């Protein structure tokens, strides 16, 4: 139904009237009254979102993406679904595993995951690792993961400040992974993280990060980071970008990195 509202601008007035009469005929007045209310509410909501986005860009306020807000939100989140509430389909998740995680994260190395949440990707990363470490701003996430992966002796989980990786030694990480995390981290914090990536990654180590691309313009609780600013931040930190993509092909099916023009960027420390 959301798609109908988003794409109504592509219909002319005559076509809207014609389609509206057909909807009324097939669904009845009560359902159509609800649809009309939804239409009206979505228009108002869209105007308010536009105003919020404009104010954030003009004033530099964090919106919903400050360190304090991210900590508060994810501390309070119900992690019963293990993070799979953001998985479009089992096929999509399997393809991420095969075409992204297994392609770029080497086997038998020291792996760092930033923001494991409910452990959506953590099991696969532990399997591929020699030693695995996860850092999350949310203590509740770390508690969930410690219980979920209690039998994994090569895995450790720690609460991070959200602006540094101070408990991770220099040049101690061979592969870094983060998914559905940096979409919520604003540019200032990203710059601090990029400097830490340079410090904790071993020479030749690889990083794979899922992030936003349009500075939150499409919603989705996204931060002010754009594709260009993400790549520039890595470059300024002295990191080399190997690949950056919004979609990939898997046996004839095209999969998207995210619902809001998200991007997966692969980089390394030279």
List the helices and strands and how they pair.
Layout: H1 2-6, H2 13-27, H3 29-59, H4 67-76, H5 90-104, E1 109-114, H6 122-128, E2 129-136, H7 139-148, E3 155-159, E4 173-178, H8 187-200, E5 201-211, H9 227-236, E6 240-245, E7 247-250, E8 253-256, E9 263-268
Parallel strand pairs: 1-2, 1-4, 2-3, 4-5
Antiparallel strand pairs: 5-9, 6-9, 7-8
Account of the 3D structure:
This protein is α/β, with parallel strands linked by helices and 270 residues long. The chain has two domains: 2-59, no CATH class; 67-268, Vaccinia Virus protein VP39 (Rossmann fold), CATH 3.40.50. The chain has nine helices and nine strands. The chain has a seven-stranded mixed β-sheet, with helices on both faces. The radius of gyration is 21 Å and the shape is globular. The mean pLDDT is 93.
Short structural description:
It is built from 9 helices and 9 strands. It is α/β, with parallel strands linked by helices.
The value of Rg in angstroms is 21 Å
Query: So what's the CATH class of the largest domain?
Result: Alpha Beta
Please summarize the sheet with the most strands: 7 strands, mixed
CATH fold title of the largest domain: Rossmann fold
| Count of separate structural domains | 2
Q: Give the class from helix and strand content and strand pairing.
A: alpha/beta
Key features of this structure:
seven-stranded mixed β-sheet; two-stranded antiparallel sheet; 9 strands; Rossmann fold; alpha/beta; globular; 43% helix; 270 residues
């Amino acid at each position: 139904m959301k798609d109908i509202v988003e794409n109504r601008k592509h219909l002319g007035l005559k076509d809207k009237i014609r389609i509206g009469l057909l909807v009324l005929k097939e669904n009845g007045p009560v359902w159509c009254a609800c649809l009309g209310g939804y239409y009206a509410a979505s228009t108002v909501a869209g105007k308010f979102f536009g105003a919020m986005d404009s104010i954030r860009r003009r004033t530099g306020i964090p919106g919903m993406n400050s360190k304090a807000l991210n900590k508060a939100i994810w501390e309070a989140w119900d992690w019963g679904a293990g993070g799979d509430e953001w998985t479009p389909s089992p096929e999509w998740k399997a393809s991420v595993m095969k075409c992204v995680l297994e392609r770029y994260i080497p086997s038998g190395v020291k792996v760092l995951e930033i923001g494991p949440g409910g452990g959506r990707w953590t099991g696969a990363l532990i399997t591929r690792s020699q030693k695995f470490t996860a850092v999350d701003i949310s203590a509740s996430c770390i508690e969930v993961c410690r219980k979920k992966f209690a039998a994994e002796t090569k895995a450790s989980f720690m609460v991070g400040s959200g602006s540094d990786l101070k408990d991770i030694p220099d040049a101690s990480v061979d592969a870094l992974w983060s998914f559905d995390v940096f979409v919520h981290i604003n540019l200032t914090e990203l710059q601090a993280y990029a400097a830490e990536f340079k410090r904790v990654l071993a020479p030749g180590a690889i990083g794979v990060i899922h992030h936003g691309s349009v500075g939150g313009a499409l919603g989705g609780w996204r931060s002010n980071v754009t594709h260009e600013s993400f790549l520039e931040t890595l470059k300024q930190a002295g990191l080399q970008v190997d690949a950056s993509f919004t979609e990939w092909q898997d046996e004839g099916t095209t999969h998207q990195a995210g619902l809001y023009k998200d991007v997966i960027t692969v980089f390394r420390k030279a």
